[in-house]
Automatic annotation (TrEMBL):
PANTHER family in the cross-refs: IRON(III) DICITRATE-BINDING PROTEIN (PTHR30535:SF7), VITAMIN B12-BINDING PROTEIN (PTHR30535)
Organism field: Streptomyces xinghaiensis
UniProt entry tagged with the keyword Iron-sulfur: no
InterPro entries (UniProt xref): ABC_Transporter_SBP, ABC_transptr_periplasmic_BD
Signal sequence segment: 1-23
Domain of life: Bacteria
Domain Fe/B12 periplasmic-binding: start-end pairs: 61-340
PROSITE patterns reported for this sequence: FE_B12_PBP, PROKAR_LIPOPROTEIN
Keywords: Signal
Keyword Membrane in annotation: no
Family the entry assigns: Belongs to the bacterial solute-binding protein 8 family.
Protein name: ABC transporter substrate-binding protein
Length: 340
């Protein structure tokens, strides 16, 4: 089965950071360094999860939470605007990814949960996180709580709540990525860099879609995150939906109007996925997840299990991040291989 780190995909992703895979980047938008002001563009306003936000200058001490959010900042070359990042130590080998220099230059503030005390100690002026990507009212850590102590918050667009309780998702996953790149481009005055990335990512996705399976050849695909009593999976608004569908698969949970949510195994069995994608992260390894799926009696008759069509993708490829387009190309190749 494919490994969670794919050299070819990461090489293309690395090229995207520098050139947008074909899009031009001006010399001032090269590697390293922070945003360069280009003539009084402030104040700027953006829309973030339905809220209009104004910035009179670029934040200088951003704290990010988790790998995808952190790599969005690195892809935009904003290391110099960061106080550091918070991330568990189960996010894979960070020394071989396209943004390894960003990790090297930036402080790893904590391998535990982000909290108000941590960001205060870091003298943060902005926290880039999301609902269930760091922000959680139950833990007393939310944009509203940060506002009380004078710290701004930018919410990951994949995590925007949609008005139905705490359900998340207001736009297609790839559009969420592009929205955040463009918003941050405005906030930090690197709009040219953001547009180059978006153009490169769109090109990479279009090339993958051109080669992807179509029509009746599209296999039914289920994303397995974790859980044994009930599986955690992705719905319409999480990264895997666009990754699966644009790679040539039929996402069996596309009617789930949320980002990440728990469903019942009976629903999975009824929809009979022909391919299962494992989200590789956490204390339970991908091999352990595979062993569970292939030994769990209710799944014995599911096509993906019977035919051993199980793919592993890394967590950072499946949450909103600049790794999403490369994951589409990688999964598209896997689905074609299964069909041959």
């Amino acid at each position: 089965m494919p490994s969670s780190v794919r050299p070819a995909a990461l090489a293309c992703a690395a090229a995207l950071v520098l050139t947008g895979c074909g899009a031009e980047v001006t010399p001032e938008d090269g590697e390293g360094g922070g945003a360069k002001a280009r003539g009084g563009r402030y104040p700027v306003t953006i829309q973030n999860c339905g809220e209009t936000k104004r910035y009179d200058k670029a934040p200088q001490r951003v704290v990010t939470n988790d790998v995808g959010i952190t790599e969005i900042m690195f892809a935009l070359g904003l290391e110099d605007h960061m106080a550091g990042y918070v991330m568990p130590d189960d996010r894979g080998d960070l020394t071989s990814v396209p943004w390894k220099d960003g990790y090297r230059k930036t402080t790893w503030l904590s391998k535990k949960t982000i909290n108000k005390e941590l960001v205060l100690d870091a003298r943060a002026d902005l926290v880039f996180a999301g609902w269930n990507y760091g922000f959680n009212e139950g833990e007393g850590f939310s944009p509203a709580e940060l506002e009380k102590v004078g710290i701004d918050a930018y919410l990951l667009s994949e995590s925007c709540r949609n008005g139905q309780g705490k359900a998340r998702g207001v736009m297609p996953p790839l559009e969420a990525l592009y929205t955040d790149l463009r918003n941050l481009g405005k906030i930090f005055d690197v709009e040219d860099r953001a547009e180059a990335l978006v153009a490169g990512f769109r090109k990479q996705v279009a090339e993958a879609r051109a080669k992807a399976l179509k029509g009746a050849d599209r296999p039914r695909v289920f994303l397995y995150d974790d859980g044994q009593d009930k599986p955690l999976t992705s719905g319409l608004y999480a990264g895997p939906h666009d990754i699966i569908t644009r790679a040539g698969g039929d996402h069996i949970m596309k009617d789930l109007k949320d980002s990440w949510a728990t469903v019942g195994w009976e629903t999975v069995v009824e929809r009979d996925p022909e391919v299962i994608v494992i989200n590789d992260y956490g204390d339970t390894t991908a091999d352990q997840k595979r062993k569970f799926l292939t030994s769990y009696p209710p799944l014995a008759g599911v096509s993906a299990v019977k035919n051993d069509r199980i793919v592993v993708l890394d967590y950072a490829e499946l949450v909103e991040s600049p790794r999403n387009p490369a994951a589409i190309a990688s999964l598209a190749a896997d689905l074609r291989r299964f069909a041959s």
